[in-house]
Amino acid sequence: MMRILLFVATNLAVVLVASITLSLFGFNGFMAANGVDLDLSQLLVFCAVFGFAGSIVSLLISKWMAKMSTGTQIITQPRTRHEQWLLQTVEELSREAGIKMPEVGIFPAYEANAFATGWNRNDALVAVSQGLLERFSPDEVRAVLAHEIGHVANGDMVTLALVQGVVNTFVMFFARIIGNFVDKVIFKNEEGQGIAYYVATIVAELVLGILASIIVMWFSRRREYRADDAGARLAGTGAMINALQRLRAEQGMPVQMPDSLHAFGINGGLKQGLAGLLMSHPPLEDRIEALRRRG
What we know:
alpha+beta; single chain; elongated; 295 residues; 10 helices; 4 strands
């Protein structure tokens, strides 16, 4: 229920912000004066506003969304020596990485996982699962935390949001060009936008959205290697390799993190074949091998 409310609220906010922005810039539509052709410059502005609005709003509420959807409990006053150690370790790693101390939390999940999110490198959240804390050694937990701190220090959340905004823009842009072509050329409609335009646009957005997701996930996989490298620098290459090997040993366990947070977790699951193009994380074997080559 909470996720549905969040989805509706986010989309209402996007529409409101985009509408105000378009009004301020005097935007009243993307059809040319003849009412048949598209004004491509106006269309690009329309798509950019809506495309970036969604990704930016999602970025701005990312910490709140993560806390609500995973049940993460923020550690403000440590109650146990494990929580005290967790805070001290994150503080130490953050200082070494040159970032402000992020919020630290634990989410109730049996699988070993962790994630980092937040709208900038100095206002972030790092959280680990209860299962990871219970089954991993202190050195392995420290390596996982270093990996997540690496994401924050590299500015990955902001960069991924910008990439998603660009992708959103061009998916909307080309989908409407395709919809207009189908409506005007194939169905010969010469009066505004007919039903064929809307149907073709929706279908084109679905197809182009899948293709665009391949680009975003490719970037996400590149991002994981950089975070592994940062984790190795902060916690040691051996510890980072050991942590990934433990994750690989547990890979058969179900991953319960929300889909929206998979790209920010250390364990993104495993897919084979063509579905591998939509993986947010590279195979753990490839990540381990890359660290071994690093030496």
